[in-house]
Amino acid sequence: MKARMKDMMRVATARLGGEQQAGASSSSGYVRRDSTAVRTTRLGGDSLRRQPQPQAPTVRTVYCNDRDANAPVGYKGNSVSTTKYNVLTFLPKGLFEQFRRVANLYFLMISILSTTPISPVHPVTNVVPLSLVLLVSLIKEAFEDWKRFQNDMSINNAKVDILQDRDWESTPWKRLQVGDIVRIKKDGYFPADLLFLSSTNPDGVCYIETANLDGETNLKIRKALEKTWDYVLPEKVSEFKGEVQCEQPNNSLYTFTGNLIVDKQTIPLSPNQLLLRGCSLRNTEYIVGVVIFTGHETKVMMNSMNVPSKRSTLEKKLDKLILALFATLFMMCVIGAIGSGVFINQKYFYLGLRGHVEDQFNPKNRFVVTILTMFTLITLYSTIIPISLYVSIEMIKFIQCTQFINNDINMYHAESNTPALARTSNLNEELGQVEYIFSDKTGTLTRNLMEFFKCSIGGEMYGTGITEIEKGGAERAGIKIDNDEGKRSAVAIHEKGFNFDDARLMRGAWRNEPNPEACKEFFRCLAICHTVLPEGEETPEKISYQAASPDEAALVAAAKNFGFFFYRGALALGPRPKLLEGVYTIIETNPCKGYMRETEHLLLRVIWEQSKTSVIPIITPDRIPVSSVAFDKTPHDAGAIEVALTILRTPTTVVVRESHVERMGSIQDVSYEILNVLEFNSTRKRQSVVCRFPNGRLVLYCKGADNVVFERLADGNHDMKKISREHLEQFGSAGLRTLCLAYRDLNREQYESWNEKFVQAKSSLRDRDKKLDEVAELIEKDLILIGCTAIEDKLQEGVPACIETLSAAGIKIWVLTGDKMETAINIAYACSLVNNDTKQFIISSETDTIREAEDKGDPIEIARVIKDTVKQSLKNFHEEALRSLSRMPERKLALIIDGRCLMYALDPTLRVDLLGLSLSCHSVVCCRVSPLQKAQVASLVKKGARKITLSIGDGANDVSMIQAAHVGIGISGQEGMQAVMASDFAIAQFRFLTDLLLVHGRWSYLRLCKVITYFFYKNLTFTLTQFWFTFQTGFSGQRFYDDWFQSLYNVIFTALPVIIVGLFDKDVTASLSKRYPQLYKEGIRNSFFKWRVIAVWGFFAFYQSIVFYYFTAAASRHGHGSSGKILGLWDVSTMAFSCVVVTVNLRLLMACNSITRWHYISVAGSIVAWFVFIFIYSAIMTSFDRQENVYFVIYVLMSTFFFYLTILLVPVIALFGDFLYLSIQRWLYPYDYQVIQEMHRDDPHEYSMVQLPETSHLSPEEQRSYAISMLPRENSKHTGFAFDSPGYESFFASQQGVGVPHKPWDVARRASMKQRQQPQRPARS
Q1: Tens digits of residue pLDDT in 826-874
Q2: pLDDT one-digit tens code per residue, 1030-1083
Q3: Which residues are annotated as a binding site for ATP?
Q4: Quick one: how far is CA 391 from the chain centroid?
Q5: Sign (positive or negative) of CA dihedral 552, 558, 560, 563
Q6: What does the record give under GO molecular function (predicted)?
């Protein structure tokens, strides 16, 4: 390793001028330096000027290594802050956020009203609960923001090397400024967006990892401009003075346009020279870069926006319930206010209403009395709105996510060490109501682990394997296919990315095929046309490929196995030229017959060696013979000297070890110069490279989607095209991913003319990508088809079973993919989305009518024909679907449409027809769709059908779809983490949707429905007792309860039990939830939060409030204490409040489906808390107003038999109606889950939800214990409980092959079983 580092440093030294001796040689005229002007367009003036220039809004000018020149512009610093608050803004901004909620704002107004003379309650009644709610919320906000602040501080204070006075100095990130030159060491992170100047690697490249950006761990290559390669050492870097003119800061991670102006030359910049903040340096000792964007202007910070805020449907319906409670409150206040205006009269002389009285009780102005009483009653009845509801729901949702979803072992993927992740807690219950799922295919339904499986070359199909989808299709047709693993040929190879079996192509056998030249071009295209980076030793067995996508790695692996081994993708040092000792003067050069116009000086160290000739062939570092140079020997004393050689240096060289090309068994290393790369993007759907062969041949290789490549083929050879199309259809039917390969020979003049346009387009600052695409169109034409590849992407484990389960749950699944229709249909079959009994409605642009219009070439006519075809198809299919459903309601229907037709179907004039047909189908498959179309389809169902939607995907192209649906699920797969970063929930495998939806989603929905309706019930019950008391007080607004009773009712005496129910209530176990997926339909129908359910709770709240008030008030009319005094207002209200607390807590237990010790503790604790409070509160006398009202009240009550009788009887009478209703409902009108409860009431309980699905990582003892825990248990037929006996364990263990010591009673058990079976044997025979 040290030797390698020394070599790297030596090369860097050579570039910078080497030792002083070399510098002297250069200055003495020993070297002739050729230079060629770079043809680019300058954006600024003719010369570099160090004073600030006026700049256009779209151009950013940065002076490198010159802080004074950048200072007047005032660029932002590099310190970042992700906190929501600071010390000054925390309280105002935090309170503003809290009072944006209607309920909190309402209670603020009530608290203000309670401080006025018209309020019948003490301000503490409303201020205390509001303060507690705000305090809890603000503490939560402060804790989260403090964590963000600590993270920001650690990042801002990280150290980086910055160039100061010709040396590197360690400086915190936050002190970096635009234009500074920094050094980043291996495994270090880039502190800002940097312009890549140079690297210690000999070819000016570095390797970066973008895991922090998009989650992708495969290394990516970045290449510095050749002009800046020499700036490695600080002495040389300090001389660098350049000007960067580039785009303004933006959030586009994958684009960058700009120019570097240095030494009066303008050189275009691309994303290849941009190193983004947050990425890390790999496999490179260090790099040097210039700071371009800092702090919040970096691309990653401009992308760090929050996921679009989503509110669950249940929460929106809760708003309607709150409005209904407001309406109820208003009605109660109006009734009381009108009653007060009518009741007030001077005839009630004992009220003292004669003479001077308050306005609120002045009989002479009844209107004012009505208005003031209205405000009085609003404060009195304010408890009808549950102030602690939102806080309780937030707490429940947060714990559900962090403790249940994130820690569910059934959603943990051991292979990737990835648990489920809830990125938001706002949508837990939404998971229990999903009706439509929109799924990507690649990486979501499939594994995204690509294997080269088949191919077609020159019209001949190769590959004998059978895909999983072909096997499934054969089984549907009744054909049995044996496993072919044992029948593979001797030449078959199965490794990562390659699973191919055909002796005709392996081990050089392709030379004997009818089309060996086509095979050769096919393999070369695979080995050259890519952006793959090789890693590891340069041997076929040990090399590994880093690729942007698994497809590319599979294609390069295929080329390797076919004998075209790509092992070097960039310039690296090879054997150096060996010359005689001395200083040599170059007399003549002849580099490659003058084909290359750009040259570069490279300093090489030469070593003494005997030589008999003065003309030596010079070998470049990449082992290409460049020229023969004649040398004039002059004496020199040094044993090792520096010789300057003018040699050919290309931007990139691909080295391929080709086997069997010249003859069977021959192996040769061939270097191909990559002159231009036309990169792949979602619009082009193809990638091309222009390369030069060692013999000077210029070739364009192209690979891409079949429809894109076929459009660009040269005329002629129709038979080849036809056969290739048939092969593509066969590959698609087998579920394989296809690409077409083509090439084109170029002549020198043709290429140079095009290259000038390419350089101009690449130098453009505006619309660079668009101009590059236009230039690419000029050369990507008249292609010659070589063949096509077929790559298998296998289904993920458990996908068909998961889809069947979700379909049984009433969920409709749509697949939105960019693959061809044939591939998508077969994937749908393999996933059980469609079967042979499914009626398919196919809308395709591949019809004869559309083809005829395309042949005419009129775009307007083509659009009209396609639109008319789509319109007619939608209409006819919709009518046919309705007829089919009316005749056979159970029959499944499926719509299959391609992206071209979908574009017209999403037109506003046809959108309603598309939605109608889609909703009639059980499944929909959209092929060849773009990311935008995915989002449009999700929005169509979300807004048009008003159904709960869920989108799931794993790639960046799924982000818009994920954000468009109600719930977004990201799969942390092979395509990076962009989908996860934009999602609401993240899982590792599609099959985990079963647990996420049917278990956690369903439980969350049931629990929150119960929590909300119970809050509504208990607050309405409490408030209505106060309302009935108003009728007894002349509607005066006299309070029935003490202020502290009213304050603590929601926050202490009834708060904890409802949270426990929201966390632990389960109607059925997780296994039964998945065993009976039909239970999920109750959530889709919203069965537990309908107005009918709310009305039932409201009715019993009304009934119980009457019982609480009138039973206690009327029954205590003649009651008296031990002293003989009759019971007063505060005695009755304390007794009534005690009944309310006991009853509402017991009512919650009646609503529970499963009761744990936490239920008992919380309910008993809440009731005990009330009595502890009243014992202490009644025993204290203070000087505060109204405290004397309840002094010693509880002690007086407890001295009477009447109190105990009331506490026992009133809750029983109040709950009798609920008990009767629940019994009748369960017997006559049961919910689905209640039916399942009765079916499995005698089943053993699931004592532990924790199961270890994969045991490969367990020790032998742990595996044995786990195997024992998984053994079947015997159940008692009498008690309904399972019992565990060592005898049964050992017996069942022996049946399962698990080693457990046998017990004596096992012998008797086995003997008894044999005896029972013996009489049955003759009967069976």
Answers
A1: 778 778 788 777 888 999 888 888 888 877 777 888 889 999 999 999 9
A2: 888 888 888 888 888 888 898 889 989 999 999 999 999 999 999 999 999 999
A3: 440-442, 552, 680, 703, 737, 817-819, 928, 934, 957-958
A4: 27
A5: negative
A6: ATP binding; ATP hydrolysis activity; flippase activity; magnesium ion binding
Separation between Cα atoms, residue 40 and residue 223, nearest integer Å: 19
Q: How large is the average pLDDT for residues 1087-1096?
A: 93
E strands, 569-666, in order: 600-606, 615-619, 625-630, 641-647, 653-659
If you average pLDDT over residues 716-741, what whole number do you get? 86
Strands 274-275 and 923-927 come out as unpaired
The whole-model pTM stands at 0.69
Q: Which of 211, 225, 192, 198 is nearest to 287 (CA)?
A: 198
How many Å apart are CA 928 and CA 899, to the nearest integer? 5
Question: How far is Cα 583 from Cα 1003, in angstroms, rounded to an integer?
Answer: 84
Q: Compute the distance between CA of residue 368 and CA of residue 374 in angstroms, rounded to an integer.
A: 10
For residues 248 and 447, give the distance between their C-alpha atoms in angstroms, rounded to a whole number. Answer: 39
1131 is catalytic: no
- Identify the DSSP state of 579: B
Give the SS3 label for residue 844: coil
Is the Cβ–Cβ distance between 179 and 70 less than 8 Å? yes
522: exposed, middle or buried (C-beta count within 10 Å: 0-12, 13-18, 19+)?
Answer: buried
Give the pLDDT confidence of 563-595 residue by residue, as tens digits.
999 987 543 323 333 333 333 333 333 333 222
Cα–Cα dist 396/1011, whole Å: 10
Q: Identify whether the C-beta of residue 1181 lies closer than 8 Å to the C-beta of residue 1188.
A: yes
- Which listed residue (440, 551, 1043, 1131) is catalytic? 440
* Contacts with 973 (C-beta within 8 Å, 6 or more apart), sequence order: 443, 444, 448, 954, 955, 988
Structure letter (DSSP) for residue 32: P
Kind and range of the H or E run holding 194: strand 193-199
DSSP letter for each residue of 680-731: --TTT-EEEEEEE-TTS-EEEEEEE-HHHHHHTBPS--HHHHHHHHHHHHHH
What is the spatial distance between Cα 1046 and Cα 1189, in angstroms, rounded to a whole number?
Answer: 14
Nearest by Cα to 1213 from 1163, 1143, 1113, 1164: 1143
Rounded Cα distance between 1014 and 1022, Å, is 12
Quote the tokens at residue 608.
């003494």
Helix, coil or strand: residue 114: helix
> Could you count the other beta carbons within 10 Å of the beta carbon of residue 1303?
16
Phi-psi region of 732 (alpha: psi -120 to 50; beta: other; left: phi over 0): alpha
Count Cβ neighbours within 10 Å for each residue of 1084-1113 and write b for 16 or more, e otherwise.
bebbbbeeeebebbbebbebbbebbbebbb
The burial class, CB within 10 Å (0-12 / 13-18 / 19+), for 457 is buried
Paired sense of beta strands 533-535 and 421-422, if any: unpaired
Q: How far is CA 559 from the centre of its chain?
A: 34
Residue 203 φ/ψ, nearest 5 degrees = -115, 15
CB atoms inside a 10 Å sphere around CB 1036: 20
**Residues linked to residue 1295 through DSSP beta bridges, in sequence order:** none
Structure tokens at 377: 């009653």
**Residues contacting 44, CB < 8 A, separation 6+:** 53, 61, 243, 245, 261
User: In the prediction, which pLDDT does 1259 show?
Assistant: 58
Binding-site residues from annotation = 440-442, 552, 680, 703, 737, 817-819, 928, 934, 954, 957-958
Confirm if 701 and 689 have CB atoms less than 8 A apart: yes
Measured from the Cβ of residue 423, the count of other Cβ atoms closer than 10 Å reads 16
Token output for 173: 């990130």
Q: How many CA atoms lie within 13 A of 1025 on its CB side?
A: 31
Residue at 582: amino acid letter: G
- Residues flagged as binding site for Mg(2+): 440, 442, 954, 958
Average pLDDT value for residue range 1260-1274: 54
